[in-house]
Amino acid sequence: MAAGWLWRRLFQGSAFPVNYASRIMQKQCFLPNSNLMGVRLAGSHVDTQEPKTNPLVSISDEPETLYKRLSLLVKGHDKAVLDSYEYFAVLAAKELGISVEKVHKPPKKIERLTLLKSVHIYKKHRVQYEMRTHYMCLELKYLTSSTAAVYLEYVQRNLPEGVAMEVKKTKIEKIPEHIQEPVWDTLPQVEETEVKS
Question: pLDDT tens for residues 19-49?
Fold first, then answer.
């Protein structure tokens, strides 16, 4: 009787916790109706042998792009937020095994705006407002394109509010073949003539 009531409540979508339903299932309460034996509950788990392939991972024969330097310029109006984000970005780089070349802070930019305190009179009474923009530059060296993509996605997703980021990548490329050999080796030989005076 109690098992039938429980099954009716489960199939109606009642608000039973999954733990309660799983405890009842462990007591091996079987259904009297053989037509419902193939029903799978939300709390139950069926282990299946499916091939585990990740569709997000792609394998290609192309060589990865190498970056000599990855420069992140982060700017914001709150210095404490930038300091906290600097700690987070350096910690994330160390966890991924990326070598941090240097972290430096360029000078802050102060933009001042002077307005009259009164609308019509008292020209000498003024109010000054200022916006301070703080900068933090993080330079990472010797990265592959996949490592740079993973790091940048992680760091940009955790960017705090009111903070902007600018990324500069310096790619390592192979020297073109027309530059590898010196130009003077490919020029035809010019015969020199002696001039008698």
Answer: 444 444 444 444 444 444 444 445 555 555 5
